[in-house]
Write a structure and sequence with these properties.
The protein is built from 8 helices and 7 strands; from the N terminus they run E-H-E-H-E-H-E-H-E-H-E-H-H-H-E. By secondary structure, the protein is an alpha/beta fold. The chain has a single domain, classed as Rossmann fold. Strand 2 (34-39), helix 2 and strand 3 (62-67) form a beta-alpha-beta unit. Helix 1 packs across helix 8 (234-245) and helix 3 runs parallel beside helix 4. The structure holds nicotinamide-adenine-dinucleotide. Residues 12-13, 15-16, 19-21, 39-40, 68-71, 96-99, 120, 147, 149, 192, 194-195, 197-200 line the site of nicotinamide-adenine-dinucleotide (NAD).
C-alpha cells in the first residue's frame, strides 16, 4: 500500500462524485501520496473538492484541495505556486479533466463543440504540462499520466469531435514521452472504454431515448459491446493510473494503455 509513499500528486477533474479523478485521488492517497485534489468549481462552490479531501483525511491520508479550471492560466499558476510552496516539488500529474463535448452527429456539431473538446482535453493538458515540466526537469524526474479514451485509438460513430481531441491526447503523450525521457520524466496515457461515471450516463440516456428502453435494458445492451461484458468501474481505471504513476512501471513511457474490458482487442 505504499507504492506512492510521499509523492506529491496533482489530479485535475477530481471531485466528480463517481468519477475516475476522485477514484484515483482516493487510491493514490491510500498508496501514501500527498494528493492535490482539483476541479472546476460550479458557482465558486469548493464543497465537492473538499468532500474528496475530507474523505482522504478521514482515512488517514494526506490531501488538500482547490478550484482549477484547466483552461484558465491564472488557476494553473495559482495551483503550481501553492503546491511548490507547500511541498517544494511535483512528482506526478494526472491530467484527468474531461467534458462530453464533440459528441453527436458530425454535421450537427458546431465550432463551439469542437473548441470545448480541444480546449479542455488538449490545450488544458498542454497548459498544465508546460507549467509542471520545468519543475520536474529541475528536480530530476517526474511522471505524467493523461486520461485519453478508446475513442482516441479507433474511429467511433457519433464521437468525431471528442474522439479527435482524444487522438490528440494520445499523440501529445507519445511525442512528449520521446522528448522528455532523457530528463527521467515518464509520460503515458490511459484509454478507458465504457466506464460507469456521470459522463457515460449521457450515453446511456441517449440509448434509452433512441431505443425507447429503460436504464437497465440500455446498460445491458451497451455492455454487450464490451468483451468482458460489463461497464468498467472508475476504481479499475484508478488501478491502472496508480501503476503508471508508480515505480512499478519505471521502464514504461509513451504508451496508451487501454482500460476497456477488451474493447480495444480488435485494434
Ligand atoms: N466515462 C467514460 O466512459 C470515459 C471513457 C473514456 C475516457 N473518459 C475520460 O475520463 C476522464 C474522466 O471522466 P469521467 O468519466 O470520470 O467523468 P466525470 O464527468 O465524472 O469527470 C470529469 C471531471 O472533469 C471536470 N472538468 C470538466 N471541465 C473541466 C475544466 N475546464 N477544468 C477542470 N476540470 C474540468 C468535471 O468537473 C469532472 O469532475 C475524462 O477525461 C473523460 O473524457 C471517460
Amino acid at each position: 500500500m505504499n507504492s506512492l509513499k510521499g509523492k506529491v500528486v496533482i489530479i485535475t477533474g477530481a471531485a466528480s462524485e463517481r468519477g475516475m479523478g476522485r477514484a484515483t485521488a482516493l487510491k493514490m492517497a491510500s498508496e501514501g501520496a500527498n494528493v492535490i485534489v482539483s476541479d472546476k468549481l460550479k458557482n465558486d462552490d469548493v464543497g465537492p473538492v473538499q468532500d474528496v479531501v475530507d474523505q482522504i483525511l478521514s482515512e488517514g491520508g494526506s490531501a488538500f484541495g482547490l478550484g482549477l479550471d484547466v483552461t484558465n492560466d491564472i488557476d494553473i499558476k495559482n495551483l503550481v505556486d501553492q503546491v511548490l510552496t507547500k511541498y517544494g516539488r511535483i512528482d506526478v500529474l494526472f491530467n484527468n479533466a474531461g467534458v462530453p463535448a464533440g459528441v453527436g452527429d458530425f454535421l450537427n456539431l458546431d465550432e463551439r463543440d469542437w473548441r470545448l473538446a480541444f480546449d479542455v482535453h488538449v490545450f488544458g493538458m498542454v497548459k498544465l504540462i508546460k507549467a509542471v515540466l520545468p519543475h520536474m526537469i529541475e528536480q530530476g524526474g517526474g511522471v505524467i499520466v493523461n486520461n485519453a479514451s478508446t475513442a482516441g485509438l479507433a474511429g467511433l460513430a457519433q464521437f468525431s469531435g471528442y474522439g479527435a481531441s482524444k487522438f490528440a491526447v494520445v499523440g501529445l503523450t507519445k511525442h512528449l514521452a520521446a522528448e522528455y525521457g532523457s530528463h527521467s520524466i515518464r509520460i503515458n496515457c490511459v484509454c478507458p472504454g465504457m466506464i460507469d461515471t456521470a459522463m457515460s450516463d449521457i450515453e446511456v440516456s441517449g440509448f434509452m431515448k433512441d431505443h425507447n428502453v429503460d436504464r437497465e435494458t440500455a446498460i445491458k445492451e451497451l455492455s454487450m459491446l464490451v468483451p468482458l461484458g460489463k461497464y468498467g468501474d472508475p476504481a479499475e481505471v484508478a488501478d491502472a493510473v496508480v501503476f503508471l504513476a508508480s515505480d512499478k512501471s519505471k521502464y514504461i513511457t509513451g504508451i496508451a494503455l487501454p482500460v476497456a474490458g477488451g474493447m480495444s482487442a480488435g485494434l
